[in-house]
Amino acid sequence: MKKASKIFLTIILSLTGLCLGLLIISALSNLNLPQASAHPETLDEAELTRQAELFHLRQNVGDEVWSGWGTAELPVIAYNEGYAFLLGYPGQPPVGWLKVPAGTQRGSDWQILPAKTFEGQVIYFQPLSSGLYPENFAVQVGESWVSSLQTREWMEIQLSQTVRADLPGVLRSVFPYRLFIGLMLGGDDKYISAVAHESFHAWQGLTAPQKFSAAETAARLDERYPWESESLSQDWKAELQCLADMLRGENPAALLAQVRRFLEHRAARRQSAGLNTELIAYEQQREWLEGLARYAELEIWRQGGLSGYEPLPSTASLPHFDRYHGFENRWQQELDQMLRMYYDEGDGRFYYSGMAQAYLLDRLLPGWKQRAFEDGIWLETLLIEALK
């Protein structure tokens, strides 16, 4: 008995010592946690490599994702806490950028970034006024539709600062920020696909400006959507489960019947929740806008991992670039996360429900993308057509 107690005590003390050791290591690591971009006034080589790989990836396989997207001229804005950088812009850009769809003018004159080029072109930059960022979306610079996203470095810093602000004081110094950030943001493949997501928004705006504008304007209706309804959340849970089951399913013969049940469930959910025409349109528009962009984000990753694509040689210098080999893990994570979105208050669930419908249409309705940008055509509209 005494021997067993001694062994138990040894185990407890060892685990306690291990935990304390890990906390000390985490605290020491946090002492060097960046609080600002190392050189915010310029773009480092790693960021330029990520952006170049995005252009290379989209130009080579973008049309496999969506016809025309790969060959479209879509510049990029990368920004940090103090500066915005405009890459791939043809000619001299006009002042600042336009926030879309509001058309609000933001920013100042673009200047040429000294001693740096991008794909043989000059890079433009401008200092940012406090709080006036281009956002993670699409903007317009002159007549050009431009995607916009934080630099990877600033994204990591902002996330760590946000987490730190939300933690109780006792945990702030020992929380494993680096580990958490790595799990949340993933590697360079995920960042590149995130830039592709915003690039697809620019493509939507360029190709279907009125539909894009209406879908983004509809975001204001989130204040009227009954997120707090428990019965609606449970109905959404069943709906998302249905979508996940279909995407995981391996029986093509059963798919049409499953889609029919999904659409019936969706109609019943809306009737039970008392959603009016405007709120139903809100769902459809957000699925079109964000769901398709999520689809493009994932599908370009999948296409990049196929044997026919070769990333830029310079990507070998990126320490966390996996040449898109991790798509299957990302896909399973997406399906798992989709099942958790039923209780998310906000339009995040529409990213997943729209993405899932797009992948189902790939299986059921060849040529569906040719109609997806038409007015009045939504993803569920095309699923209904697939049943006929």
Indicate the topology.
Blueprint: H1 2-30, H2 45-65, E1 76-79, E2 83-87, E3 97-99, E4 104-106, E5 111-118, E6 121-127, E7 137-141, E8 144-150, H3 152-166, H4 169-172, H5 177-185, H6 188-207, H7 209-217, H8 230-248, H9 252-273, H10 277-304, H11 327-338, H12 348-364, H13 379-386
Parallel strand pairs: 1-8
Antiparallel strand pairs: 1-2, 2-6, 3-4, 3-7, 5-6, 7-8
Which runs of at least 5 residues are low in confidence (pLDDT < 50)?
Answer: none
The radius of gyration is 23 Å
Helix-strand pattern, N to C? HHEEEEEEEEHHHHHHHHHHH
Secondary-structure class = alpha+beta
Distance between the termini: 74 Å
Describe the structure.
Helix content is 55%, strand content 11%. The chain is built from 13 helices and eight strands. It has 388 residues and is of the alpha+beta class. It folds into two domains: 163 residues, no CATH class; 144 residues, no CATH class. Helix 2 packs across helix 10, helix 7 crosses helix 10 and helix 10 packs across helix 12. Strands 4-3-7-8-1-2-6-5 form an eight-stranded mixed sheet.
